[in-house]
Write a structure and sequence with these properties.
Blueprint (H helix, E strand, L loop, with lengths): L8 H4 L14 H8 L2 H8 L3 H14 L4 H25 L3 H8 L2 H35 L5 H18 L2 H14 L2 H5 L7 H9 L7 H14 L2 H16 L16 H38 L9 H12 L1 H33 L12 H6 L7 H11 L2
Length: 386
Amino acid sequence: MSVVAPCEPSRSVRPRVDTTRAGSGPVWRQYLRALGPGLVTGASDDDPSGIATYAQAGARFGFGLLWAALITLPLMAAVQEICDRTALATAKSLGELAAERFARRGRIVIAVLLVALIGANALNIAADLAAIGAGMHVLRAGPPWLWALLAGSAITAMVMSGSFETMARVFKVICVALLAYLGVLFVVKVKWGSVAAHTFVPHITFSADYLMLLVAVLGTTISPYLFFWQSAHRIEELRDEPEGGEDAIALDMRSTPGEKNKVRTSRADVFAGMTFSNVVMFAIIVATAATLGRHGNRDVASAAEAARALRPVAGGLSTLLFAAGFIAAGFLAVPVLAGSGSAGLSGLLGKAGVSPARLGTLRFSMDWWSPAPLEARSSRWPASAP
């Protein structure tokens, strides 16, 4: 069993809870019910900025970076499994654990890093909202600025007014839309023999452009905000279990069958989410390599540009599927980006929780991607903290 942080006095007198009933029913239903934090975290990794990076990889180097999709899968799964297991074992987020384990100087350093993460997330959020607007423009639905504004407003309203359980369900539905990238593979011609060769045998080019894009792919695939979101989402899932009331139930407070079942289903969730993320990454690289790369369209600066470039070489359906995929990815990634940094910082400050119904910590995070200038955000963040 994983090492558990020192228990609070109130927890020590609490009896072990049997949570096995929640995991009852057919195996397939248990599996679908277990999908949640891992799936959402993995899918949110494929945000529009990441999709643009994968499209650039396929357009510029063909199948040459496909091996990265394979080799990053166990790395992602291992890191996210660690984040998930710490939440299960302690019923505390990464921010809370950092506050407990580090001295004052260490907490200050972590706080500075988290503020930097929130700032980086704010820029990423702005880019993702712009990508949603550009995607709707590709679909000829209106001007980009209008859809970016509407998307930001809709996401803000959902986060501020809905419960975390409702948001989690919406996130899971949005994840399905990313399957559009697998659909793209059915409308383009792919040399699968070459795909297999480049997937299992790395074809590395020691050039500055190749190595820079490889670093970009690795950085996009394994991002810090995923660590905090995985932990925070798992904690909220534990709090939503009826057996625990408002408290998250750690592994050591469960019956032995309940503990084993929770570990098994949570691990399956994490591995499924990371696999889903890398399959989408794989599909994007293959699709753009087989179309844009083959026809010499190597200058792709954004996901919207990749979608437009697909129309003359692969048809309008490929453009529709590609645009629909990164629009959905933007709607999923924006609240995850906003919530991950605030969840980490609020935990470090002793304000545990993500759900607006419990603490309103997302009001703090939303200030970071509101339409206000970045200078105003950076100057007022201490006053906005919960």
